[in-house]
C-alpha cells in the first residue's frame, strides 16, 4: 500500500547506497535490527498513550499487516515498517511470530530493498501456502524505473520453524505492469487461490481513470503469470483500489475455509481499501470460478457508501485462513490521529487492531466479527453490574479495575421502551454524519446510551460509545456511534465522530442489544450487536490515563435503559508485542 504521506526521505537513499556498495564488494547485503535498548527508548511523556495489548512496534512507523499466515503451528505476522523513523518511508517487511496471536516475538526483517526489482521499496502483499506445504510471499516492489511490479520470495530454509530468512529469486518480477496497466497504480497482490482449472489466481489493486479494479492473473507454477482478459471485479468512480482481499465465507460462527475451496452455493467476500477515502469497503457475492468473475449480491452498495469491516480508524485490512482452528482471521491497521509532530515527539506511530474471527451473518447480508478467543486469556481482575437501571440523564460508574487497559461487555434490555423510539428520517443515509449531528449529549427517545471510556472522574475527558434507536414503520433502526470529541484536553488532535448502522432485529431479540469495547490507552475498539457493527478510534487523553481512567455506563435519552449484565475485566499486558 502507498502511504498518504508518500515521500522518500534522504535517509532512504543512504540505505540503498549502502546496499549497493555491499553487493558490489561481494558482501551479502544485511539489514540491521535495532537493539532491545533502542526499542525501549520511548519518550516517557508518551508512555501513558502507548497500547498495552495491541500489536505495535516499540518505536517508529508501522502500517499494513501484509501477510498474516499460519504455518506448522506458528502464526506469522509480516507488516510494513520504517526501521528508522516514526513516519512513512524506508519501508521493509518486518516479521514477528506467535503461538496465540497475542504474545509476539520479533524476528529479523523478512524482505527489504536489495534488488533492481524492489530497490525503491518493498510494499504490501500476501502469503500463500503452495503444494508440499511451501510458503511463498508475493509483494509489490518499486523497481529502478519506479514502476510497481510484483515479486515473490521463499523461505531460505523450510526446516527453520520460524522462517527467519527469505530469498528473492533473480527471475523477479513475476508480474509487470504491461499494456494499459498504470505502472504507478498496480499494487498489493492478495493471497492466491487454486482453481478447478489447475491454475493459481491472484488479484492486484489498480485503476483506469476513475474505474477501480482488481486485475486478475493466472499461473500454473507461481512463476509465469498471465493476465486474464477481464478483471475479477471493477467499479466505476471509486478510484484506486488498494489491498484487495477475496475469500470464501461460511455462515457458521467462528468458522472459515481456505481460499481455494470452491463449491456451489459458497459465498465470497470482496474487500478493497479505497485510497481516496482511506476506508475499507466490502460486498458479499458469488464467485463464478469457471469464468473467473465475482458478482456482488446487490444487497449493499458496491461503492464508498457500502459495507465496512470497521466504521472507524481502520484500513489496509488483511484476512488469512487459520488452519489450526479452522477460522478466518482479520487484521487491520489503525493509524495515529494526532499530528506528525506528535509522532516525532513520541517516537512511534501506528498499531494493528486486535485480530478478529470473521464469518457470514445468518441473514447473508453482512459479516460478523469478534475478537479471537485468545484475547480472553489476558483477562484478570473482574467486576460486574447486574440488573441495574440507568435512568435518564444519569451514569453508573464501573469501579474496581484499572480502566485504561480493559475489556467490557454489556447487555441492555430495551423491551419496555421500543415503542417510544424517535421517528427515523429517510434522509439520514450517512451514519457518520448522523452521529456527528446527534452526539453523545443530545437527548433522544431511546438513547444515546452506552459507555464512557477513558474518562476522568468528572467526565471532562471521555470517549463515548453509544447507541440510538429510531423507528421506521414497524421496524427499528439502530445507530452505533463512537464520539471522541471530548476524549482529550490536548489541542491539535483529529477527533472525528464515527458511526454505522447496525443490521439487527430488536423485536426478534426481545429488545436486547449488546456492546463489547476493548480499551487500550490510545485505542478504543467496539463491537455492537455481537460484532455486526465495529468501530475503532484513536484517542489521546491528557488526564484519563493509568489509574485516573474511569468507565461509566450512561444514558442521555428520555427513556430509562436497563443493564441486564455488565462485566469488565482488567487486561494484563502480553509477554511481548511488536518487533
Gross geometry: globular
Q: Largest sheet, described in full?
A: 7 strands, mixed
Uncertain spans: 4-45
Q: Mean pLDDT, nearest integer?
A: 91
Supply the number of helical segments. Answer: 4
> Over all CA atoms, what is the radius of gyration?
24 Å
Oligomeric state of the chains in view: single chain
Q: Fraction of residues in helices?
A: under 10%
Question: What is the number of E strands?
Answer: 38
Distance between the termini: 20 Å
Q: SSE layout and pairings?
A:
Blueprint: H1 10-24, H2 36-39, E1 60-65, E2 69-71, E3 74-82, E4 92-98, E5 105-111, E6 122-130, E7 134-142, E8 148-155, E9 166-167, E10 186-187, E11 193-194, E12 200-208, E13 211-219, E14 225-227, E15 233-235, E16 241-249, E17 267-274, E18 279-288, E19 293-296, E20 315-322, E21 327-334, H3 340-346, E22 348-349, E23 351-352, E24 356-360, E25 367-371, E26 379-390, E27 394-398, E28 405-413, E29 422-423, H4 431-437, E30 446-455, E31 463-472, E32 475-483, E33 498-502, E34 512-520, E35 523-528, E36 533-538, E37 550-555, E38 561-571
Parallel strand pairs: 1-22, 29-31
Antiparallel strand pairs: 1-3, 2-3, 3-4, 4-5, 6-7, 7-8, 8-9, 10-12, 11-12, 12-13, 13-14, 13-15, 16-17, 17-18, 18-19, 20-21, 21-23, 21-24, 24-25, 26-38, 27-37, 28-34, 28-38, 30-31, 30-37, 31-32, 32-33, 34-35, 35-36
Notable features of this structure?
579 residues; mainly beta; seven-stranded mixed beta sheet; six-stranded mixed beta sheet; 6% helix; glycosidase; hydrolase; hydrolase activity, hydrolyzing O-glycosyl compounds; glycoprotein; Glyco_hydro_32_C
Amino acid at each position: 500500500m502507498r502511504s498518504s504521506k508518500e515521500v522518500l526521505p534522504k535517509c532512504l537513499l543512504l540505505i540503498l547506497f549502502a546496499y549497493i556498495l555491499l553487493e558490489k564488494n561481494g558482501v551479502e547485503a544485511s539489514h540491521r535490527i535495532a537493539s532491545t535498548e533502542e526499542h525501549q527508548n520511548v519518550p516517557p511523556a508518551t508512555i501513558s498513550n502507548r497500547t498495552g495489548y495491541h500489536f505495535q512496534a516499540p518505536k517508529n512507523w508501522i502500517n499494513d499487516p501484509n501477510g498474516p499466515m499460519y504455518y506448522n503451528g506458528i502464526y506469522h505476522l509480516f507488516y510494513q515498517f520504517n526501521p528508522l523513523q516514526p513516519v512513512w518511508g524506508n519501508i521493509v517487511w518486518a516479521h514477528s511470530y506467535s503461538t496465540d496471536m497475542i504474545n509476539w516475538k520479533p524476528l529479523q526483517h523478512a524482505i527489504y530493498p536489495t534488488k533492481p526489482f524492489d530497490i525503491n521499496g518493498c510494499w504490501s502483499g500476501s502469503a500463500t501456502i503452495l503444494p508440499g506445504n511451501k510458503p511463498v510471499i508475493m509483494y509489490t516492489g518499486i523497481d529502478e524505473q519506479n514502476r510497481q511490479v510484483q515479486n515473490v520470495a521463499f523461505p531460505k530454509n523450510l526446516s527453520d520453524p520460524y522462517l527467519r530468512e527469505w530469498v528473492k529469486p533473480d527471475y523477479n518480477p513475476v508480474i509487470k505492469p504491461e499494456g494499459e496497466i498504470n505502472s504507478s497504480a498496480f499494487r498489493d497482490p492478495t493471497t492466491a487461490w487454486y482453481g478447478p482449472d489447475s491454475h493459481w489466481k491472484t488479484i492486484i489493486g489498480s485503476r483506469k481513470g476513475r474505474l477501480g479494479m482488481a486485475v486478475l492473473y493466472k499461473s500454473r507454477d507461481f512463476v509465469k503469470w498471465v493476465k486474464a482478459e477481464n478483471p475479477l471485479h471493477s467499479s466505476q468512480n471509486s478510484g484506486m483500489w488498494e489491498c484487495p482481499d477475496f475469500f470464501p465465507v461460511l455462515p457458521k460462527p467462528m468458522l472459515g475455509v481456505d481460499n481455494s475451496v470452491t463449491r456451489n452455493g459458497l459465498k465470497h467476500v470482496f474487500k478493497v481499501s479505497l485510497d481516496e477515502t482511506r476506508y475499507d469497503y466490502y460486498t458479499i457475492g458469488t464467485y463464478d470460478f469457471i469464468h473467473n468473475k465475482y458478482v456482488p449480491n446487490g444487497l449493499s452498495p458496491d461503492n464508498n457508501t457500502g459495507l465496512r469491516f470497521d466504521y472507524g480508524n481502520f484500513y489496509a485490512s488483511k484476512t488469512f485462513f487459520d488452519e489450526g482452528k479452522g477460522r478466518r482471521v482479520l487484521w487491520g491497521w489503525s493509524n495515529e490521529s494526532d499530528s506528525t509532530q506528535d509522532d516525532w515527539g513520541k517516537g512511534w506511530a501506528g498499531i494493528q487492531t486486535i485480530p478478529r474471527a470473521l464469518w457470514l451473518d445468518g441473514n447473508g447480508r453482512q459479516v460478523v466479527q469478534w475478537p479471537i478467543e485468545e484475547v480472553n486469556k489476558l483477562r484478570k481482575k473482574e467486576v460486574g453490574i447486574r440488573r441495574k437501571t440507568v435512568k435518564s440523564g444519569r451514569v453508573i460508574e464501573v469501579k474496581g479495575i484499572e480502566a485504561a487497559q480493559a475489556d467490557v461487555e454489556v447487555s441492555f434490555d430495551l423491551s419496555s421502551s421500543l415503542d417510544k423510539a424517535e421517528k427515523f428520517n429517510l434522509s439520514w443515509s450517512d451514519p457518520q454524519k448522523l452521529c456527528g449531528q446527534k452526539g453523545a449529549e443530545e437527548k433522544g427517545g431511546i438513547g444515546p446510551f452506552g459507555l464512557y471510556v477513558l474518562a476522568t472522574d468528572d467526565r471532562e475527558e471521555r470517549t463515548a460509545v453509544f447507541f440510538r434507536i429510531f423507528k421506521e414503520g414497524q421496524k427499528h433502526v439502530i445507530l452505533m456511534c463512537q464520539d471522541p470529541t471530548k476524549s482529550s484536553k490536548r489541542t491539535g488532535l483529529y477527533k472525528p465522530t464515527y458511526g454505522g448502522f447496525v443490521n439487527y432485529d430488536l423485536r426478534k431479540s426481545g429488545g436486547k442489544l449488546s456492546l463489547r469495547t476493548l480499551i487500550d490507552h490510545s485505542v478504543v475498539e467496539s463491537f455492537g450487536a455481537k460484532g455486526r457493527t465495529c468501530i475503532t478510534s484513536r484517542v489521546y487523553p491528557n488526564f484519563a490515563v493509568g489509574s485516573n481512567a474511569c468507565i461509566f455506563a450512561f444514558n442521555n435519552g428520555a427513556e430509562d435503559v436497563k443493564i441486564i449484565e455488565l462485566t469488565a475485566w482488567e487486561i494484563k499486558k502480553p509477554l511481548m508485542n511488536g518487533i
